Amino acid sequence: MLRVDALISSPVYLVGLIQILSSEGIRIVSTRRSSTEQISWLADAALIDEDALDGPAGLDDIAEAARTTAVLVLLNSWSLPAEEYLRAGAIGVIHKSQSGESLVSALRTVTAGDQVLPEGHAANYPSERPDPLTLNLSAREEQVLSQISRGLTHGQIATRLGISPHTVDTYVKRIRAKLGVGNKAELTRVALLSQLASPVA
Fold first, then answer.
1. pLDDT tens column, 53-78
2. DSSP 94
3. What is the helix (H) or strand (E) element at residue 38, kind and residue range?
4. CA 115, 201, 194 angle in degrees (round to 5)?
5. Is 137 exposed, middle or buried (0-12, 13-18, 19+ CB in 10 A)?
6. Which of 136, 154, 155, 153 is closest to 194 using CA atoms?
């Protein structure tokens, strides 16, 4: 079952959203009215209403959420271009006026690590990420990326590799900068595409 954390500004929209997602077997594990509230660690994806963000400063909230889960942004006013949200770390952007079926499909798509853009929006942001093997990742960075792809936390990675969690954080920041990715789902996808992640027995 797909689990979603929802940051939604409108209680009326939230009620409709819960009905739509529940009917498709998608569970909302947490609802938030403010980006200052903690995102649920159980969530497979975060659904973020741009109206609940604090204007352009809300991009930092997108980036923070993208550190732990796949992010889908709900557009309403088109105050910022979709690309701004994607650069901040969101995997997908969809307009609130799109159908419930489109929203469900978008949530499933971003959870799989694939990009979603609003209907009628020309894609001018790259959906394919660079191959890590062509970006000169260090051996240690490749090890960290491989462990992330297996779903390990930074603490677990630190224990396995015999380094501190702070050092793992530093490696992850370097990897993200080199690969241009914003969250764990994207890092995992890149690792799998480059065959850095071996199957878990």
1. 876 678 888 888 888 889 999 987 65
2. E
3. none
4. 40
5. buried
6. 136
